[in-house]
What does this fold into?
Amino acid sequence: MAKSSKTIGKNVGAGAANSLLKEFFVEELKDIYYAEKQIAKTLPKMKKAATSEELKQAFESHLVMTQEQIVRLEQVFELIGEKAKGKTCEAIEGIIKEGEGIIADTDSKTATRDVGLIFAAQKVEHYEIATYGGLAQLADTLGLSEAAQLLHTTLEEEKQTDLLLTGIAENHVNYEASEEKA
It folds into this structure.
């Protein structure tokens, strides 16, 4: 049974070069390309707002990774013969705005702000995980194996970043915040 579904997937990919699915795939690539560029602009602000050195380092490392992911997306665009171009991603705009609100609504140099920053960052990660998971699957369906491989690489990086943020929260930031007086 699994063998026949792989065959179907390969057959669909072979004839899908000018399909509506391919157009959708390209539009979603533009969306995440824009999102990654916005994330790259936002991470330095998050680092500056953080108190925990571990969290500051996580944001710095993720900025470097995000810049690499932008290059990887440009490679995907090139592989499919499209110009690397973003389109406004309303979802990331909202998540970033919410993160800015967290910074504005929490006291500086507190673990509580760090908790909020982790919340905001994980919302970004979960959006990216959903998007890259879907894009990687669509690339597989469309027979774009090299693009799929690049997208799977980014997907795994986003999952690791999410786990890192969870670890920072669970290992000390949440506990430190619970001790802060209102």
About this structure: Residues 91 and 127 are 8 Å apart (CA to CA). The longest helix spans residues 145-178.
